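Replying to the earlier thread about multi-chain prediction with a worked example.

Input:
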Amino acid sequence: MIALAMVAAVVVVAVRLSVTGVRVARTPSDLFVASRAVSTWWNAGAISGEYLSAASFLGIAGLTLKVGAGALWQAVGFAAGYLALLLFVAAPLRRYGSYTIADFAEARLGSPALRLLSSAVVLLISGFYLVPQLKGAGIALDELTNLPYWVGVVVVGAIVPLGVALGGMRGITYVQAFQFWVKLTAIAVPAVLIVIHLGGLPTGPAIFGHSFPRAPAGGLTVTLPAPTPVRFPAASAYASSSGRHRVASGGERTLPAGRVRFAGGAVLPAGPDVTAQRGIEWARPVSSSGDSSPLFLYSLLLATFLGTMGLPHILVRFYTSPDGPAARRTTVSVLSLLGLFYLFPGIYGLLGRAVTPGLYVTGQTDAVVLTVPQAAWPGLPGELLGGVVAAGAFAAFMSTSSGLLVSIAGTLSYDVWPRLRPQHTIGARARQAHFRIAAPLGIVIPVALALVAENLDISLLVGWAFALAASTFCPLFLLGIWWNRLTAPGAVAGIVLGGTLATTAIFLDLAHVGGSGAAGALLAQPAVVTVPVAFSTMVAVSLLRPDRGEGTDRHLLALHAPEELGFDVTMRDQNAPVGVAAR
Amino acid sequence: MSDARPWSRTPGDELADATAHGGVYLRRLVRAQLALSLVALVAFGGLLGSLPLVLLLVGRLQHITLAGIPLADLLVAVPPFPLFVVIGWIYRRRADAIDDAFRTLVRGE
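Result:
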């Protein structure tokens, strides 16, 4: 009950803050980029708030619990992405002054076809990134109230479009910054208090030693919603509605729905998609094979390092900085805010291994952040801290979903709709109305996908979005900004090939084609192959069909020349983005 | 700016008229910024990129513990984040300085 009240409070405050934004959200420039008057720390807070999604708040800890310390690299990669953004993209893109990725693509390379292709990829990345957010909402509400999974998905899927349609981005900037501090507090304070309560970080044979996870001294009761297939890594025993059972090492059983009891010290079985590990295997951040092999890790780091710049909801925030140096300052601030946050998710994975080993049986490892407080500190304190964590989780779903939905609605109303009705000129007022219609429409498909994705890991779903972004928009930006010989056909070829390869790999991985060797690692984390392929395709096609029209230098000047020199020629009128003005 | 010195063309004029000289100034700016970014990238890649291999090859890091936690885990969980901020901060100062130098050049000061 306490938790539910805290979640409701966060949701109400967030919606209220969006609505306050309505009074100032009058023009499309307000709606899309908040009139470019947002200060460095507000903007850094908003970027971080928008970025810290279900994957950061629940997914890293869940994956740490499930596969072990190798999951810590994910946090490193998520933060490192902003370094790539800072070094290669932030200032030039801000100076160029396009509103969206599609704007940049068309203005830089003069190709309407490329604009449409980019819009399609934006919709794909945003849509698939939305699915794990909604999944997080579903399992969180389930965990808090025992309502069915779909309720949380539908509730967040209804509230988010409301805030987006009412507030646009001006409202969202303040909401996002507010959400960042909610999230940081919600993950840091309970972690610190619980560690103090336990008298230090947990250590033990199941964590850093040679033991498999075992039931605590008092025994462990797990409640299963449905019959669950499990595998026992060592000889053990359990009691269920069908009586007491002994199981030999390596035994596979299907546990019946309902309560299953393990006596104190009994080795726990591993549920669906979980592989039982001894403490020493679990605690190893790098191992010679599997999900923490160097090949997998480098591919993961590459995808997150290069994928962040291609996330549509993040990039649009850089246009709200007043100028290039401000965009750089903002990014450095983001690095420090994120660095602070990412110290904590791993702690929940570690605590979870000690106090909620039952999650290995159910397979619901993504819920570990939500279940640790009550398990580690029974009674009122645990309940209060559980409420704080749940409120933070909802802040995560809401803020990331809002940002993604702004991108989707912006792309639909601004890039796609005008193309479908080319004979009509669309005024500012009509465009705003389209944006507000597109917001609820844009979330329908992600909600439907989230309803069927209950058993997929949040981290897996998010990893897909990163790999796709790194294989499409990252080469477009890096070459478009730093190489004056990139051509539109080159960019199209690279995006199509990189995007297709990345998508295919992930779907093959979902179908479990690859196995556990190098092939499996590459399918689960394809960036190390698909990113170089996308880059070399763009370069090769551009060189084969050179198109050195006049004006390439003009683009480089607009991208790189400092402000106040009069070279930021592409965009003076804030209400007429580059692509539109050129037509 | 050119009115003050009608007898000479400033780099700003060359750039605005997209002359060959202007192209040289522009490429010099882009190259300077790119070189700086690549240096920062190498620093990042060298330090973070070697970490997985170091942890894999130096097994002892798994057995040395600090407050009960293996050093190998701590090395992944904590130092990368301040490292990113430090690299970012140094990069930002140098990049702004390159911008300032270009601004001075173009204005012919």
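Chain A has two domains: 2-200+282-452, 220-267.

Feel free to reuse this layout for your own posts.
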